[in-house]
Amino acid sequence: MWTFNVDETRPGRSAKSQEEYWRQAADEYGAALQRLAWAYEPDPDRRRDLVQEIHLALWRSFENFESRCSLRTWVYRVAHNVATSHAMRRRRWRAPVFLTLEDIETQEAPQNVEESAGRHQALERLLALVQGLDFIDRQLILAYLEGLDAESMSQITGLSAANVWTRIHRLKNVLVRQFHSGGTHAK
Question: 174 and 134 in contact (C-beta within 8 Å)?
Fold first, then answer.
């Protein structure tokens, strides 16, 4: 069972009430928190760590809990915030995945290794070109690639929608020209 010891208390609030809120949350929503962690973290050891992070964050959060929302809403809000942060950290620092011999044997061989390598190399070159753009142009082309419309890009950048489309058109031409010439800088 989870336990936390508190040496300091917040003025006007006892550590016991914080502890009581946390115990109630752990009892009522413990299984749901386990399921939530399962959805965010496939690795069992890291999942256990995530559950501990969630419980610690919950315990800390109850110092400021004023019952403005239900206990359930509070618990899920805190848990989802912790789990999302965990997932984002994991994505940034993703460890290499090692395959067993059995995994390698059962994998399908690519139909055309040269074509696959060529696509990867082309994507790397395109990424290098985009990274070479200045901030506003990079923001525009990435928004375009994400499928945002001109009005949305206008709101993000502060440019007019007409200006957005003009710059997108020019950027696409520059990127295509540089890509075909073998360049790695778009400007």
Answer: no
Q: Tens digit of pLDDT per residue, the chain (187 long)?
A: 455 544 444 444 444 588 899 999 999 999 888 877 877 787 889 999 999 999 999 999 998 888 887 787 788 888 888 988 887 887 676 555 565 666 666 666 656 777 777 777 887 788 788 777 876 787 788 768 767 678 877 877 788 999 999 999 999 999 999 988 876 555 5
> Is 108 a domain residue?
no
Q: Count up the domains in the chain and report the number.
A: 2
Structure tokens at 4: 């936390």
Contact between 50 and 82 under an 8 Å Cβ cutoff? The reply is: yes
DSSP secondary-structure letter at 147?
Answer: T
Range of the domain at 159: 122-181
| Residues sharing a CB contact under 8 Å with residue 51, sequence separation 6 or more, in sequence order | 33, 34, 37
CA distance 164 to 10: 52
Note whether residue 81 is domain-resident: yes
Sign of the C-alpha dihedral, residues 88, 92, 95, 101? Answer: positive
Instruction: Spell out the long-range contacts of 150-157 with Cβ–Cβ below 8 A and sequence spacing 24 or more.
Output: none
Query: In 3-state terms, the chain is what percent helix, strand and coil (to 5)?
Result: 70, 0, 30
pTM: 0.44
- 141 and 78 belong to one structural domain: no
88 shares its domain with 131: no
